[in-house]
Design goal:
The chain is mainly alpha-helical. It has eight helices and three strands. The protein has two domains: 69 residues, no CATH class; 90 residues, no CATH class. A three-stranded mixed β-sheet has the order 1-2-3. A hairpin with a 5-residue loop joins β1 and β2.
Length: 170
């Protein structure tokens, strides 16, 4: 954000999104001055909105490095960023078998550095539930994950159907 010649704060689209993701009520942000103008000096970006990856330095890094940089950018409220997702999921377990399954799956998620993804999925389910948005029962290999079942991502109890999480987390 910057100040204009009248000493008013000027926000970018991105900074407004960040404020909302940090838990600010959008109604409280009414009246903000947002600069959403397009920089016409980069006319080629407007005419060719699909990035030309061959011209960028993305190919200079490994797939793992690329994924690591992308996985650090999750837009969600601070309460979800700070959530101990493993503890939250384990507290949802109702018996020893569920605790064992969730514990072993959480180790697999941790090995793959996917805890931020689980936090975001928790946030997504909460937002969809709050706004009465309906999503599917479950699809594909994701139904093999009991952790995703406990989070409410799908409604297929993989423990009951003895589905192997290895089908999902290959």
């Amino acid at each position: 954000m910057i100040r204009n010649k009248f000493d008013e704060l000027i926000f970018t689209d991105s900074s407004v999104c960040d404020l909302i993701m940090q838990g600010n009520n959008p109604a409280d942000l009414a009246g903000m001055i947002v600069d959403n103008t397009i920089d016409l000096t980069s006319w080629s970006d407007i005419m060719n909105p699909v990035p030309d990856w061959s011209q960028q330095k993305v190919h200079d890094c490994s797939v793992e490095e690329f994924h690591a940089t992308q996985q650090n950018q999750w837009h969600m409220p601070l309460e979800y960023q700070e959530l101990d997702i493993a503890e939250y999921i384990l507290n949802l377990c109702e018996n020893e078998a569920e605790l064992q399954r969730c514990g072993s799956e959480l180790l697999l998620y941790q090995e793959r550095n996917l805890f931020n993804l689980l936090k975001y999925l928790k946030y997504l389910v909460d937002v969809m539930t709050k706004n009465n948005i309906i999503w599917g029962l479950g699809r594909g290999s994701s139904v093999a994950s009991f952790v995703l079942y406990k989070l409410g991502i799908h409604r297929i109890n993989s423990l009951y159907y003895e589905l192997d999480v290895g089908e999902f987390l290959r």
